[in-house]
Design a protein that fits this description.
Oligomer: single chain
Helix content: 40-55%
Radius of gyration: 44 Å
C-alpha cells in the first residue's frame, strides 16, 4: 500500500483493533469534522491513540506512531453536540506525517505488514487459547456468548486482535499490541497481559469471597443473637450483654421520674436487639452515655450568708451600690423561700462595666458553680434545645452540655449577650429561651436530643445585655432589668487602684512594690487614652504600660518605676483624646447634643447651615427616621412662631436648611436631639452663637413641650468626660439627678426646662454670649 492521506480521530483512553467493531463517543469539534469528512467522501478514517488523555487539542507530538485504519459504518448524533460513531477496524498503519491539525487532523499513512512465522506461532496460540478460556471463566465484566472463535479455523492474526479488543487492558498495553508488527511478539505480549488479568481476577475473587464469608458470619451471629434474646426474654434473663447489664445497674441507681425511667429503659432494651458494630448501636450508646453522665440527682450544698455575700460583692466591685443592694435583696429572698420562681435578673449596661464579673461574684456569694454561655451570633434554636437524634452528629443543647461539665443541677448559669441573638430558617433561639427562663416551665425542660424532661428549676439564671430595645418583648417580660451605668472618673481611679493595676502587674511578672501609680497619672490614662463608659480600655492601657516597665526591668535599665502625670507620656506616647473637642468658642448654628449609645454616653455636635434657595431641607450624617422626624418637628415649630422670632414670612421658602451630624459613617437615631436641632436652626437663622460647653438633651413636640429622655447618667458621664460644664435637660428628668453620685453632679450645672421657649431664652438672648 502506498502512502495515502486520510482524516483522523485522536482517541483518549480507548483503542480499536483490526477485525473489531466498536462504538465511539465523539465530542471534540475537529474529530466530528473528520468523521463527517470520511462519511461524505465514502472514505475511511485513521484511529490513533493520544499519549496524554488530558490534552484537549493534540498536536503532532501528542499522537502515537501507529494507528488503525477504520471504516465509518454509522453516525448517530445526540443532544449536546456529541455523536455516537460505529467504526470497524481494518488494518494497522504507520503514520508518516501529520498533514493538518485544523479544521481536523489529517494524516499521511501506509500499511503495516505483519511478520508471520507459522511454526513459532501455533504453539503460542494454544497457550493464549488456554489463558483466554481461563479468563472467561473468571471474568464477570464481559460477555462472550456471541464470540465464537475456532483456533484451528481462524486466521491467527484476526484471532489475536479479536481477543485483544475484547479484554479491558489499559491504553498503554493496547497500544503495545497495536504497534507489534511481529505476530509472534504480539501473541507473547498478549499471553503476558492475559496472565496478569487472570491474577487480578483471582485476587478480586478472593476478596469478594472473604467479604461474603464475613457478611454470612455477621448475619449468622445476628440470627443467633436474636434467638438468644428471645429465649432470655421468655426466661426473664435478658441481661446477657455485660454492657446492657452495666446500663441497667446505672439506671437502678438513679432517682428519675417515671417518664425518664421508662424512656431510658426502652433504649436499653433496644440495645439488646442490635448487633455489635451496627451504626445504630453507636447512636444508642452515645445517647445512654449522655443520660448517665448528667447530674439528675446531684445538688451542691449551699449556705447563704448576707454579710458574706456583701463582703464578696464589695471586694470584687467598687461602686454599683444600687446594683449591689438589689442583688442582696435577691439573695435574701432566695434564702427565705428556697425557691427560684422570682424574676430572672438581666444586667444591662455598656461594655466593660463589669456585668460578667458581677455574675461571677453572685455565684461566689451563693456558693454555686458558675457557668457562662455567650449567645452572641446564635441563630439556631438547636443551640438551646439540642439536635434531634435523627441527625448525624447530633448532640444536646448548650444548657445540658454545661450541666454535664459542672456535674451539678444547681449552678448559676449566665447567658451572656442575650440581646445579640438572631433568627433564621433554623428557628428562633429567643423562643426557646422563653421556656428556659420561665420558672413555671423549666422544671420540665425537654432537650430535643434527650427527649425526656430535665429539671432546670434549681438553676439560678442570669443574663447580660448592652441594650433592651432589641430583646424580644415576651423574653424581656420574663426578666427584671438592672441597669449598670458607666463609671465616674473617681470610680475608675478606685477600680484601677484596687483591681486593674494589681491584676496587670501580676500578669506581667511585676510586684506592686516595683511600680507605683499616683492618682493624677491614672486620671490622665482615663481622660486622654480612653473614652468609654466601662474600664476595658483602661485595663488595656495599664497592660501596655506594664509591658514597657517589664521590658525596662528585664533589660536592667531600672528596678522600680513611678508613674506620675509627668512620666506617663514616656510609656503611653501621644494622647489619643484631647479635651479641646467641645471646649471651643461660641459658634453660630452648632449645638452639642448629649447622646446615648450601646457602649455608653457620647456628645454629638449638630451643625446647621442656612443658605439662599428654594426651601429645601437636607439631612445628612446617616440619620435614622426618628431623628429626621425630630428635625422636621423643630422646623414645624419654628414656622409656627415666625412672628415671635421676627423671621420673615417667606424666609423658609427662600432659604435652604442643611442639618448635618458629623461622623457620617455612624448611624444615629432617637428623639432626644429634638431641642438641640431646634436651637441650632434658630441660631443659624438669627446669627446667634451658642456656647460649645453647653450640652442639650430632650425630645421636642410640635407644641414646644420638652419631654423626658432615657440614658441620662451615661449622657452626663460623657458630658463630664468631654468638657461640658452646663447642660439643659427636661424637667421630668429631675428625679434622675437625685440618684446620681456627687462626682457627676458637682461638675455640671443643670438647667431644667419644660418648654423650648425656656431653652431659647437661656441660649439665644445673650446670657451665654462671651465678649
Amino acid at each position: 500500500m502506498t502512502a495515502q492521506v486520510y482524516p483522523a480521530v485522536a482517541l483518549r483512553g480507548t483503542a480499536v483493533f483490526p477485525f473489531s467493531v466498536k462504538t465511539l463517543d465523539i465530542g471534540r469539534k475537529n474529530s466530528l469534522i473528520a468523521v463527517e469528512q470520511a462519511v461524505s467522501e465514502d472514505s475511511m478514517v485513521v484511529l490513533v491513540g493520544q499519549r496524554s488523555s488530558s490534552q484537549e487539542y493534540p498536536q503532532k507530538e501528542d499522537l502515537y506512531d501507529v494507528g488503525v485504519l477504520a471504516r465509518v459504518r454509522q453516525v448517530m448524533r445526540i443532544p449536546g453536540g456529541y455523536s455516537k460513531v460505529l467504526v470497524e477496524g481494518l488494518e494497522r498503519v504507520y503514520i508518516d506525517e501529520v498533514i493538518d491539525i485544523e479544521p481536523y487532523i489529517s494524516l499521511e499513512v501506509r500499511e503495516m505488514e505483519t511478520i508471520h512465522d507459522e511454526e513459532s506461532v501455533v504453539p503460542m496460540l494454544r497457550v493464549v487459547d488456554d489463558l483466554f478460556m481461563e479468563y472467561i471463566s473468571l471474568s464477570q465484566n464481559i460477555h462472550f456468548q456471541n464470540l465464537e472463535l475456532d483456533i484451528d479455523n481462524e486466521d491467527p492474526e484476526q484471532w489475536v486482535d479479536i481477543i485483544a479488543g475484547n479484554i479491558p487492558f489499559n491504553m498503554e498495553k493496547k497500544q503495545v499490541l497495536i504497534e507489534a508488527a511481529d505476530l509472534a511478539e504480539r501473541i507473547e505480549m498478549l499471553s503476558v497481559y492475559l496472565q496478569e488479568e487472570i491474577e487480578i481476577q483471582n485476587i478480586e475473587k478472593n476478596i469478594k469471597k472473604q467479604v461474603q464469608n464475613k457478611m454470612e458470619k455477621t448475619q449468622r451471629e445476628y440470627f443467633l443473637r436474636e434467638q438468644l434474646s428471645a429465649i432470655q426474654t421468655e426466661l426473664g434473663q435478658n441481661d446477657g450483654d455485660p454492657e446492657v447489664s452495666a446500663y441497667r445497674k446505672k439506671l437502678s441507681e438513679l432517682n428519675l421520674t417515671e417518664e425518664a425511667h421508662e424512656k431510658i429503659s426502652q433504649e436499653i432494651n433496644r440495645l439488646t436487639k442490635i448487633p455489635q458494630g451496627s451504626p445504630e448501636r453507636v447512636v444508642i450508646d452515645n445517647y445512654l452515655e449522655w443520660c448517665f453522665t448528667l447530674p439528675w440527682n446531684e445538688l451542691d450544698e449551699q449556705e447563704v450568708n448576707l454579710n458574706t455575700a456583701q463582703e464578696i460583692l464589695d471586694a470584687d466591685h467598687y461602686g454599683l451600690e444600687k446594683v449591689k443592694e438589689r442583688i442582696i435583696e435577691y439573695i435574701a429572698v432566695l434564702k427565705l423561700t428556697d425557691s427560684l420562681k422570682g424574676p430572672i435578673i438581666c444586667l444591662v449596661g455598656p461594655p466593660g462595666v463589669g456585668k460578667t464579673s458581677l455574675a461571677q461574684s453572685i455565684a461566689k456569694a451563693l456558693g454555686r458553680k458558675f457557668v457562662a454561655s455567650s449567645l452572641g451570633g446564635v441563630r439556631d434554636e438547636a443551640e438551646i434545645r439540642g439536635h434531634r437524634r435523627t441527625y448525624i452528629g447530633s448532640m444536646p443543647g448548650r444548657i445540658i452540655q454545661a450541666l454535664k461539665r459542672v456535674k451539678t443541677r444547681n449552678p448559676l448559669f449566665l447567658f451572656d449577650e442575650i440581646d445579640k441573638m438572631s433568627s433564621d430558617f433554623r428557628g428562633d433561639p429567643a423562643s426557646a429561651m422563653l421556656e428556659v427562663l420561665d420558672p413555671e416551665q423549666n422544671a420540665k425542660f425537654i432537650d430535643h436530643f434527650l427527649d425526656i424532661p430535665f429539671d432546670l428549676s434549681k438553676i439560678v439564671f442570669l443574663t447580660t445585655a448592652n441594650a433592651t430595645h432589641i430583646i424580644p418583648r415576651p423574653l424581656l417580660d420574663r426578666m427584671e432589668v438592672i441597669n449598670l451605668s458607666g463609671y465616674t472618673e473617681h470610680e475608675k481611679i478606685e477600680i484601677a487602684k484596687r483591681h486593674l493595676i494589681p491584676k496587670q502587674l501580676k500578669a506581667h511578672g511585676l510586684k506592686q512594690s516595683q511600680v507605683k501609680f499616683n492618682d493624677k497619672a491614672i486620671a490622665i490614662m482615663i481622660n486622654e487614652y480612653t473614652r468609654e463608659a466601662g474600664v476595658r480600655n483602661l485595663e488595656r492601657a495599664i497592660a501596655n504600660l506594664s509591658r514597657k516597665v517589664a521590658r525596662e526591668v528585664v533589660a536592667g535599665d531600672r528596678k522600680t518605676a513611678r508613674i506620675t502625670e509627668n512620666t506617663i507620656y514616656n510609656y503611653l506616647g501621644k494622647p489619643l483624646f484631647t479635651q479641646d473637642e467641645v471646649a471651643e468658642s461660641p459658634q453660630i448654628g452648632i449645638a452639642t447634643a448629649l447622646a446615648w449609645t450601646q457602649v455608653g454616653g457620647d456628645t454629638m455636635p449638630v451643625e446647621v447651615v442656612v443658605s439662599k434657595g428654594s426651601g429645601k431641607l437636607s439631612l445628612t450624617g446617616k440619620l435614622g427616621d426618628v431623628m429626621k422626624e425630630s428635625a422636621q418637628t423643630a422646623i414645624g415649630y419654628l414656622r409656627s412662631k415666625m412672628d415671635d422670632y421676627e423671621i420673615e414670612e417667606d424666609y423658609f421658602q427662600k432659604h435652604d436648611i442643611h442639618i448635618h451630624v458629623p461622623q457620617g459613617a455612624i448611624p444615629k437615631d432617637g428623639p432626644s436631639a429634638g431641642i438641640t436641632i431646634a436651637v441650632a436652626i434658630l441660631s443659624a437663622i438669627k446669627k446667634k452663637p451658642i456656647k460649645q460647653t453647653l450640652g442639650f438633651t430632650g425630645e421636642l413636640t410640635l407644641s414646644g413641650r420638652v419631654l423626658k429622655i432615657g440614658g441620662l447618667k451615661e449622657k452626663l458621664l460623657a458630658a463630664s468626660r468631654l468638657g461640658i460644664t452646663e447642660v439643659i435637660i427636661p424637667e421630668q428628668n429631675m428625679s434622675d439627678i437625685s440618684e446620681m453620685s456627687k462626682q457627676i453632679t458637682e461638675k455640671i450645672e443643670f438647667n431644667y426646662v419644660k418648654h423650648i421657649e425656656e431653652v431659647f431664652r437661656k441660649v439665644l438672648t445673650g446670657e451665654n454670649d462671651e465678649d
